[in-house]
From TrEMBL:
Subcellular location: Cytoplasm
Family in the record: Belongs to the TRAFAC class TrmE-Era-EngA-EngB-Septin-like GTPase superfamily. EngA (Der) GTPase family.
Subunit-structure text: Associates with the 50S ribosomal subunit.
UniProt organism field: Bifidobacterium phasiani
Highest taxon listed in the record's lineage: Bacteria
Record-listed ATP binding positions: G8, P9, A10, G11, V12, G13, K14, S15, T16
Protein name, UniProt field: Multifunctional fusion protein
Functional description taken from the UniProt entry: GTPase that plays an essential role in the late steps of ribosome biogenesis.
Length: 230
């Protein structure tokens, strides 16, 4: 069982590289950002005003708790089809709207919400040790903001994927044409940095700055880290 933890700021290409890494090594894939996005989407769907100042933390925490314990939420760990479901509805596109992107930090900044998600993420990761899991016991690539530090600090491979801000901003702007919200990544990183630390690598975490690297160069670096660990 190998656990690969990948953290990094918005627009660095974490999802694309993490998914491809999981595919190449036959591992499961967990997009923890999709979990926070799904929570923000669900809260808005329940009529919670995420523009309120301050937001209603208690109601958001209860709503997210019910989303998980009530069995409304589900996420797939197949890197070829990482579905995000709410009551069986595929919300994969909805959670990547600019409305969700600009509001998600309001939800992810709430510590009791994080505790619910961290516990769920640890359970998804632990599950992949089993032979009857998606990876057949091979392991998982989990990506987000606090995987190397909080969710799985004992992961066999821990990477901080980063890139210069102007590069990340340009990549996100390029994705706007594909239906991913073009957005101010720096503003989201500032908001997220209040509760998670992903701009600098923690002890034992390998930094890969892909500002001037092609996709395949990044994949080679990640792949060699995984090979060394197996
Ligand atoms: O990775 P992605 O951009 O989809 O993440 C969406 C949001 O989810 C982040 O901006 C952050 O607010 C939150 N997040 C988090 N901790 C994680 C992953 C994502 O707080 N491990």
């Amino acid at each position: 069982m190998i656990r690969v933890a990948i953290d990094g700021p918005a627009g660095v290409g974490k999802s694309t590289t993490s998914k491809e890494l999981a595919r190449r090594f036959g591992l499961a894939y967990l997009d923890t950002g999709a979990m926070y996005r799904a929570c923000a989407w669900w809260c808005m769907r329940q009529g919670i005003d995420l523009d309120a100042e301050p937001v209603n933390e208690r109601r958001i925490t209860e709503t997210v708790g019910e989303f998980f314990t009530g069995g409304h939420f589900d996420i797939g760990v197949d890197p070829d089809d990482p579905k995000v479901l709410a009551d069986g509805e595929d919300i994969g596109a909805a959670i990547r709207s600019s409305e969700v992107s600009t509001h998600v930090s309001k939800v992810s900044n709430i510590i009791p919400v994080r505790n619910v998600l961290i516990a769920a993420q640890r359970a998804y990761i632990a599950r992949e040790a089993a032979e009857d899991s998606f990876s057949g016991g091979r392991g998982i690539v989990a990506e987000g903001r606090d995987i190397t530090t909080v969710v799985a600090p004992d992961a066999e491979v821990r990477v901080l994927l980063t890139a210069r801000e102007e590069v990340r901003q340009a990549r996100r702007a390029g994705q706007a044409s594909k239906g991913v919200g073009g957005e101010d990544v720096a503003a989201r990183d500032r908001a997220d940095s209040k509760v998670t630390s992903f701009m600098e690598a923690a002890d034992g975490v390998t930094t890969i700055d892909n500002s001037d690297l092609g996709f395949e160069d990044t994949m080679q670096l990640l792949g060699s880290l995984v090979e060394q660990a197996v």
